[in-house]
């Protein structure tokens, strides 16, 4: 099996029975804020796109690059389709010209031609990507590969049961806007960023230990930020709170926990895998490349500057009445929402900065009141501040997922009173009838069917499944004193009260173990 690195979470897998191109991303994403790093735009995409199979893990735009797929990937390729609850991914790919699909079933092996075997595990929580994320398992001639990309399965045993995995590709770096965009003192941002960076690595080590693959490939990050307004997000300033460490940092941190089987893929690197070995060749010296990271970024910034300026010029739509259009789009969804509206529990304020950089129009999405209206000087728990032009563009294009556009762009600032609230972001990725109905149904099913099984962890008896996204706490739960942390997503709970310390809601069932309680 030959694996060619093609940038970020993208790779091409070649076997004698066929080739699979995974998640090709080249175009700038999220309002021209994210670019692949190292730069992959100069690869021979005409050749790479002549593939037998295409796998797009999910609809996040650093995985689903519509422009690139349309231009470079052969429409004769057969799409390996995750089993998602909505048809959006298939619809988008059909619109680009793809006509051949293998509709997989989650966790079931599919036998393709020539002895090539694949399995896709689809995650379907409303908080998994834009309504879904997935991992791809591939086997040919005894060699097995797991492309986990940035999916976060609660259990990897379904893959280990199929035999020892030789190559494990997984995310290790940040792919979020927290804590950088929050209106906090810099010392607090650094402290929160350091915690998140450590949690990212802890989660990665846990996955690596669970799968125990022969070789580990850090992929799916980090992006780079080439706009001058976002330049500070690149991890080139010695900031221990930066959440975007690169592959060279991964190798260094992995070594600290005993990891010596890490393999870096630059765009154009080729890894030849057998059941016994992995031989990798690179287009340039890897250590030297990352030692010169800042110079590479500076050169790339100048080269991409016209692309960013052209994108910015396309965002303004002064003909749009933002308040009127937000009412038209959002109010019918508020009327239908039960779980998401209750979960948000209050008004969310958007401060929209005008073209002059000074004037501000404040609009409130009032979840209890089920309306969108001008801000009335009331207290709000959640506030976003962004350029009016960005919201104009979202409304002009009919964007149904503001997370997969505005929020991931980091082109905003945020403030909140109290804990993180996942329902805020879940709602703003569900601005369509289909998505909203699915999310409401998912929460209804999971809230009505609480996990009844309890397990012992340390001196406590707790419910086995995390109240957040059902991670197995016997594997991901860590107790320190009276607090439990689920390492899958870093959520914390106060065991004495059952209260979630990370977000609104999500009470945990917990009690002291009988002998411990008796001693007290």
TrEMBL record:
Transport among keywords: no
Signal peptide: none
High-level lineage: Bacteria, Bacillati, Actinomycetota, Actinomycetes, Micromonosporales
Keywords, in A-Z order: 2Fe-2S, Iron, Iron-sulfur, Metal-binding
Membrane-spanning residues: none
Protein name: Rieske 2Fe-2S domain-containing protein
Annotated Rieske domain residues: 461-520
InterPro entries, per database record: RibonucZ/Hydroxyglut_hydro, Rieske_2Fe-2S, Rieske_2Fe-2S_sf, SCP2_Rv3818
SUPFAM superfamilies xrefs: ISP domain, Metallo-hydrolase/oxidoreductase
Coiled-coil regions listed in the entry: none
PROSITE patterns linked to this entry: RIESKE
């Amino acid at each position: 099996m030959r694996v060619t690195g093609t940038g970020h979470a993208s790779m091409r897998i070649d076997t004698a029975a066929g080739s699979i191109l995974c998640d090709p991303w080249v175009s700038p994403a999220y309002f021209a804020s994210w670019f692949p790093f190292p730069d992959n735009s100069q690869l021979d995409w005409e050749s790479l796109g002549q593939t037998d199979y295409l796998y797009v893990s999910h609809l996040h735009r650093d995985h689903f690059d519509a422009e690139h797929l349309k231009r470079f990937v052969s429409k004769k390729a057969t799409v390996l389709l995750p089993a998602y609850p909505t048809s959006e991914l298939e619809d988008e790919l059909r619109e680009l010209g793809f006509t051949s699909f293998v509709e997989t079933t989650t966790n079931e092996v599919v036998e393709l031609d020539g002895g090539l075997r694949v399995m896709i595990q689809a995650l379907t929580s409303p908080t998994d990507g834009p309504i879904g994320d997935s991992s791809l398992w591939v086997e040919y001639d005894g060699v097995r590969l797991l492309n986990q990309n940035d999916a976060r399965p609660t259990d990897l045993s379904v893959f280990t049961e199929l035999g020892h995995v030789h190559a494990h590709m997984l995310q290790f770096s940040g792919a979020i806007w927290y804590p950088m965009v929050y209106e906090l003192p810099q010392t607090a941002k650094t402290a929160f960023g350091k915690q998140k960076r450590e949690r990212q690595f802890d989660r990665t080590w846990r996955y690596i230990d669970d799968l125990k693959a022969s070789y580990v490939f850090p992929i799916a990050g980090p992006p780079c930020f080439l706009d001058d307004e976002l330049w500070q997000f690149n991890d080139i300033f010695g900031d221990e709170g930066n959440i975007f460490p690169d592959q060279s940092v991964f190798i260094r941190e992995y070594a600290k926990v005993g990891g010596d089987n890490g393999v870096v893929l630059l765009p154009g690197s080729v890894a030849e895998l057998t059941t016994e070995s992995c031989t990798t060749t690179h287009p340039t010296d890897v250590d030297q490349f990352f030692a010169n990271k800042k110079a590479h970024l500076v050169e790339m910034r100048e080269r991409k500057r016209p692309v960013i300026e052209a994108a910015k010029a396309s965002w303004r739509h002064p003909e749009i009445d933002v308040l009127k259009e937000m009412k038209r789009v959002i109010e019918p969804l508020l009327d239908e929402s039960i779980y998401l509206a209750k979960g948000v529990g209050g008004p969310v304020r958007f401060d929209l900065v005008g073209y002059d950089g000074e004037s501000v129009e404040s609009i409130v999405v009032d979840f209890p009141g089920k309306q969108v209206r001008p801000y009335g000087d009331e207290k709000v728990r959640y506030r976003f501040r962004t350029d009016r032009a960005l919201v104009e563009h979202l409304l002009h294009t009919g964007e149904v997922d503001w997370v997969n556009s505005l929020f991931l762009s980091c082109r905003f600032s945020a403030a909140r009173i109290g804990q993180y609230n996942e329902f805020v972001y879940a709602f703003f990725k569900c601005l369509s009838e289909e998505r909203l109905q699915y999310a409401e149904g998912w929460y209804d099913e999971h809230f009505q069917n609480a996990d009844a099984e309890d397990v012992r962890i340390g001196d406590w008896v707790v419910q086995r499944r995390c109240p957040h996204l059902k991670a197995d706490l016997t594997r991901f739960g860590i107790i320190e004193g009276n607090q439990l942390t689920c390492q899958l997503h870093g959520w914390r709970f106060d065991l004495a009260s059952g209260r979630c310390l990370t977000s609104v809601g999500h009470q945990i069932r917990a009690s002291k173990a009988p002998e411990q309680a008796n001693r007290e």
